[in-house]
Design a protein that fits this description.
Blueprint: H1 5-45, H2 51-81, E1 90-93, H3 94-107, E2 115-121, E3 128-131, H4 133-149, E4 154-162, E5 171-180, H5 214-224, E6 228-235, E7 238-249, E8 270-273, H6 277-289, E9 294-297, H7 300-309, E10 314-318, H8 326-340, E11 347-352, H9 357-366, E12 370-373, H10 378-385
Parallel strand pairs: 2-4, 8-9, 8-10, 10-11, 11-12
Antiparallel strand pairs: 1-3, 3-7, 4-5, 5-7, 6-7
Helix pairs in contact: 1-2, 1-6, 2-5, 3-4, 4-5, 7-8
Length: about 400
């Protein structure tokens, strides 16, 4: 380390960049094999298995998802703590977001566990609003997950109401209360629950696993949303966590009549580009189950050669690859399209384990259209395959 003041300052200025590089590199190295493990386990689950095999597979899937959540929390907290987390404010259906989170957790409650889960949305809550739906979903999910974890029997009830009066004509405060009938939090522990890497039971024999980051992340995100999380009440009969956030008003429109039709993907030629053969195989399996036949390329050079010979309409592009990475490959594809004067361009969807906001801007500038995070799910792929070109999926840009 340099002994001069300027040298120390230069090294200090490098720390945020090094942290970002470290998070980006490690997220890729961890998510890539993990996405293969979870994805292949999900594929096996659709097969014909005996009871013992299915039980083993269920444990593999459960623990794989637990590991994914721990990794996500660690990287997410590091990113938020660096001060570089930026909310993505978009118009969304607030009621559907709240109902979706509750439905997901309801579906995951073990059949034998005597706990009910309910949601009540006050009539004064507007259906449409502008907010970061992913981050609001993340905070509410952490609170519900925490309540269910520490409630052995009884109920977890979520109530969404307006807090006080409107801030003005364009903004309002949303207040969500998560009430449980768990054992409560000891008074001496209440001040610690929002600290990172904190478990109320830190003993080796504790009953509940986790990195102790969920509430710390949620508090930071709530503050970014102009609100906070607080413990309104905690007794041996249960706890009440309150989450407040500022949202923007929009003109609430009457939903248009939706006519369900058989879904047909507008993409006939699909290419999967990834340097890991297992990831390519997994993507092709999922696509095949959806009636889509896809070709595959192992790196950027193969992708360019195949696309030049016979243009693809949809390309799923891994970002971190040897020789030519996904960003440079996309730039070269867009350059060739401009030189040829093509009106119809390939839709390019980034496949990435990176969690940094700055990466999305780089992807957009390179000419990518959407972004999906690893591990991939069938729902993620459907959000791309059954959209018309030019639309955006909910997880993308």
């Amino acid at each position: 380390m340099s002994g001069s003041p300027n040298g120390c300052r230069d090294e200090a200025e490098l720390i945020p960049a090094l942290t970002d590089d470290f998070i980006g590199m490690m997220s890729h190295e961890l998510y890539t094999p993990l996405s293969s493990i979870i994805g292949m386990a999900n594929q096996l689950a659709s097969g014909d298995l005996n009871d013992e095999q299915r039980e083993c597979l269920d444990q593999l899937r459960i623990n794989g998802n637990v590991l994914r959540e721990v990794i996500e929390d660690v990287f997410d907290y590091a990113h938020i703590a660096s001060g570089k987390c930026v909310l993505e404010i978009k118009e969304a259906n607030l009621h559907e977001v709240l109902e979706g989170v509750v439905h997901t957790h309801y579906s995951n409650i073990p059949f034998a566990k005597p706990v009910s889960l309910s949601l009540r949305i006050a009539e004064t809550i507007p259906q449409m609003a502008k907010f970061d739906s992913d981050r609001l979903r993340q905070v509410l999910s952490h609170l519900i997950e925490n309540a269910l974890k520490f409630t052995e029997r009884g109920s977890v009830d979520i109530v969404a109401i307006m807090e006080g009066r409107n801030l003005d004509q364009t903004r309002f405060r949303l207040r969500i209360e998560v009430r449980d009938t768990g054992g409560g939090i000891p008074p001496e522990q209440i001040g610690k629950v929002f600290r990172p890497f904190t478990q109320l039971d830190a003993s080796r024999s504790r009953a509940h696993e986790g990195a102790g980051l969920g509430l710390a992340i949620s508090q930071r995100l709530a503050q970014l949303m102009g609100g906070k999380i607080e413990i309104k009440e905690s007794t041996p009969r249960g706890s009440v966590f309150c989450f407040v956030a500022e949202l923007e008003r929009v003109n609430n429109r009457v939903p248009r009549l939706r006519i369900e039709r058989e879904r047909v993907s507008p993409y006939a030629r699909v290419l999967v580009v990834d340097d890991h053969s297992i990831n390519r195989r997994l993507a092709r399996h999922v696509l095949s189950d959806m009636g889509i036949t896809a070709d595959e390329a192992a790196n950027g050079k193969e992708c360019l050669d195949m696309h030049n010979r016979s243009a693809y309409e949809l390309i799923f592009m891994d970002i971190q690859m040897p020789k030519i990475d996904g960003i440079e490959t996309t730039r070269l594809i867009r350059k060739a399209e401009r030189e040829r004067g093509l009106e119809k361009k390939a839709r390019i969807v980034a496949l990435t384990a990176h969690t940094l906001n700055g990466l999305r801007q780089n992807l957009l500038e390179a000419g990518m259209d959407d972004c999906l995070s690893k591990p991939l799910t069938r729902t993620d792929l459907e959000s791309i395959l059954f959209q018309e070109p030019g639309d955006r999926c909910r997880n993308g840009f």
